[in-house]
Each structure stands twice: as C-alpha cells, then as structure tokens.
Write a structure and sequence with these properties.
single chain; alpha/beta; Lyase, Ornithine Decarboxylase, Chain A, domain 1; TIM Barrel; nine-stranded mixed beta sheet; eight-stranded parallel barrel; 12 helices; 20 strands; 27% helix; globular; binds pyridoxal-5'-phosphate
Length: 429
C-alpha cells in the first residue's frame, strides 16, 4: 500500500492522515499499532548525534518496543542495544543483532548467563549477588556495574528507579563490598552504569550523571560510562521533551574535566527507549460503542482496544494524545467532552484518567464521534505493544504495522489467533 506524503495538524493524528487511517483499517483491521519509520529514523539520528568527547555508543533500550523489525532498523542506523533479561538477549540475537552490540542490565540474573557471555554480550551487574555470581562463572572476566547513584527521577513513582526507595542497581554506599568481590574473583570492572528512571527530570538526570561519573574514580580499569535512558518525552501537545542538546553539553564538559584531572578518557554511552520510539507509534482503533450516563454523568466512547493493548493510562494515569477520525467524508465540525474507555470488563480500563489517579475520570474534548469512526491514540510507540494486559478477556494480541519512508504500510507482527491465545494450556484428562 502506498501513501502520499504526510502533513500534520494539532487536532489530527501525529503522523497519519485520515486517509491513511482509513486505508490501514480497511487493509489490516483495527485495533493495530502503527509505527512510522521516518520518525524512528529522526530520533535515532538525534541519539547518535549526542556524541562524546572520547567516543560514544547510543543504545536502544529494546524493552520499549521489542519488535524485531524495529530492532533491525535501529541496528542498520548504527545503534547498539540495552536489554533487560536473558530472553531479550536471545530475542535480539534471533533477529540478527550482533551479540557484541548487546549490553544486559537485568533485575533477574539469567540462569544461562554463561552461554550469553560466551556469545559476546557485555553485562552490568545490578546487585552484589550478581557480582558474586558473575565472578564464580567468569573469574578474571570483564564486568560493568549498574550503580544506584543516590538520586532518582521518573514520570511517576512507578518509573523512578533511583534513590533509596529503589532496588535497581548497587547502592552507591555498597561499592566497598563490590571491590571485595571483584578482587576475590579478579574481575575487571570496565563500565559504570546508571539509569535513574523513565521520564526523568532533565536537571536530576544531569546531577545523576555527575554522581555516576564520580563513582568511576574508585575503579581504575573503567573505560566506559553509561548514563542510561530516561529522557522525558512530551506526548501531549505542549508537553516538554528533554532536549538532548541541553543535557548533553554538561556531561561532555564533565568528561573533559575528568580527563584533564585523571588522564582517563571515558567512552560515553546512553540507552534511551522512550526517546527513540514513544512518538513514532500510535494505536489505531474503532469507536465500537457510545453511551451516556445522563445529565449528571458522562458521554462514553468505547473503543475496540484498551488495557489489553495500552496499559499506560491504567498503570500510570498516563495522558495520551487522541484524535477521532470520522469515517464519513463530511468535514467534522462539532466537538464534545467524552470519557474514553477500553473494551475490558472493568472500570480500570480507562483511557482518559485524571493525571492524579488512574481511577479518576477526566473528560477529553474531542471531535464528536459516531459508532464506527476510527480513533487514534498517539504517543503509543513505547511501553505499549511491549507491556499490554495481554489476552485479558481473551482479546487476542493485535498486529504491529510500519509505515515505511516510501509511504508503504507493512505488517511487522500478525494478529494473534484465538487458538494462539490458549495454545499452551494443557487439558485435564
Ligand atoms: C537499564 C535501563 N536503561 C534504559 C531504559 C530506558 O528508559 P526510557 O525508556 O525511559 O528511556 C530503562 C527503562 O526501564 C532501563 O531500565
């Protein structure tokens, strides 16, 4: 399918025209995730341009959107990868990501760590236990350390992974114990890593960068500094995104000052997920029903999607841009205030929550919708396909599509069949 070039209006979907929405819905059905190659490429370029005075690696945190087609695009554009489980290592390798481009930082140390390291991945130990396990498996080996630098910041408390309330990484005051373990197993610590949260405040991110750099001093063999991801992405109109051109320079100056003082020229790494994909994806759905609860109630739009495909509103009270795409060819002129809900049988499947509480309703002013109209939820490229309430109410997993730079829209994951929903069940005999 070939599309004409896009042009954008604030009240319309971010990267799809209404014509494209209709064509995609006709050809592939709804609901479906749709990603935009041009937006992915632009974000990849911005990350690669971050640079470092003594070498730089931009990694994609694949947990944000792990579809193999997206991984291979990012690979071809020059990114390396951050992975968060042994399964992600194998998933990336399966689609052709070279093992030496993969760095693992995981809460759960994979049982097959030996095989994975032998393939060529690098590892950031995220706890004292992980340092000890790595030392037992690879005496004399090279290891990175994920450090909790003492501060954290995230878009919500659920995505803040730094500071004393967070179990992620090795608490900075425990590094003496790390030194005991690394000398016991003759480990070479080559990288210090930190990641303080998703949707971090840029000032806290820069402060964490400085604290993390400071931890390099006690490990003379460290050649790499990885400052994680977490760059805030504005999804809603008017919401700010972290400007890489603002947070980058202080880090680079700190690296230069560190080199002048110590003679050590550190290779810099960052590993964003959201920054690379959040605004490059949308969820294309259909208004499958409409109801109201009277004069003192609300008008509800019921979509053929919901927490089964986009969990962020339910989990974080996340605000997502939304647009109605009327199927009639009449220009839509009327607006109305509505509550948008998903298709699951619980009130928590709410797509327009108040930002203060995922259970509180907040009306959204949208183009007046009729049953059968299309509906676009934007800002759905990160932590949506990757993090659904999959198969709840037995709704099958939905397809993923990619609008190529040429304008062609291609399938990159099929819709699940009903049989696939329960294929691993074992009947009682
Ligand atoms: C270790 C690590 N690096 C990078 C990221 C990516 O974060 P974001 O998507 O906010 O950029 C995460 C997200 O959880 C992470 O845990």
């Amino acid at each position: 399918m070939a599309f004409p070039k896009l042009h954008l209006l604030m009240s319309t979907p971010r990267f799809l025209t209404s014509g494209q929405c209709k064509q995609i819905a006709n050809e592939f059905g709804t609901p479906a995730y749709v990603y935009d190659e041009a937006t992915l490429k632009k974000a990849a370029r911005e990350v690669l341009d971050f640079g470092g005075p003594y070498g730089f690696t931009g990694r994609y945190a694949m947990k944000a959107c792990p579809n193999g087609a997206i991984l291979t695009l990012f690979r071809d554009w020059g990114l390396h990868f951050d992975v968060s489980s042994g399964y992600e290592v194998l998933r990336a390798i399966q689609v052709g990501i070279p093992a030496e481009k993969i760095s693992l930082s995981s809460q759960e140390y994979p049982e097959n760590i030996g095989e994975l390291v032998n393939l060529g991945i690098t590892v950031n130990a995220c706890s004292l236990k992980q340092v000890e396990s790595f030392g037992q498996a690879f005496p004399g080996g090279r290891l990175g350390l994920r450090v909790n630098p003492g501060v954290g910041s995230g878009g919500t408390l659920k995505t803040n992974v730094g500071g004393p309330s967070s179990s992620f990484g090795i608490w900075h005051e425990l590094l003496d114990q790390v030194e005991v373990l690394t000398s016991k197993h003759a480990l070479e610590v080559f990288r210090i890593h930190s990641h303080i949260g998703s949707g971090s405040d840029p000032d806290v991110w820069v402060k964490a960068a400085d604290l993390t750099l400071n931890q390099v001093r006690r490990f003379p063999g460290v050649t790499h500094l990885n400052l994680g991801g977490g760059f805030k992405v504005g999804r809603m109109p008017g919401e700010d995104s972290t400007d890489l051109g603002v947070v980058g320079p202080p880090v680079k100056m700190a690296l230069e000052a560190f080199a002048a003082e110590t003679g050590r020229k550190l290779h810099l790494e960052i590993e964003p997920g959201s920054y690379l994909t959040a605004n490059a994806g949308c969820l294309l759905a259909t208004v499958q029903d409409k109801t109201n609860t009277g004069d003192n109630g609300h008008v509800f739009l019921k979509l053929d999607t919901g927490m089964t495909d986009i969990l962020r509103p339910t989990l974080y009270a996340a605000q997502q841009p939304m647009a109605v795409v009327p199927v009639s060819n009449e220009p839509a002129s009327e607006e109305e205030s509505v509550i948008v809900v998903g298709h699951c049988c619980e009130s928590g499947d709410l797509l327009t929550p108040d930002e203060s509480d995922p259970g509180l309703l907040k009306e959204r002013r949208l183009t007046k919708a009729e049953i059968g109209d299309l509906f676009v939820i934007d800002g759905a490229g990160a932590y949506c396909a990757a993090m659904p309430a999959k198969n709840y109410n037995s709704f099958p997993e939905i397809p993923e599509l990619l609008v190529r730079e040429s304008g062609e829209c291609v399938l990159i994951r099929k819709r699940q069949t009903l049989e696939q929903v329960f294929q691993n069940e074992v009947p009682l005999i």
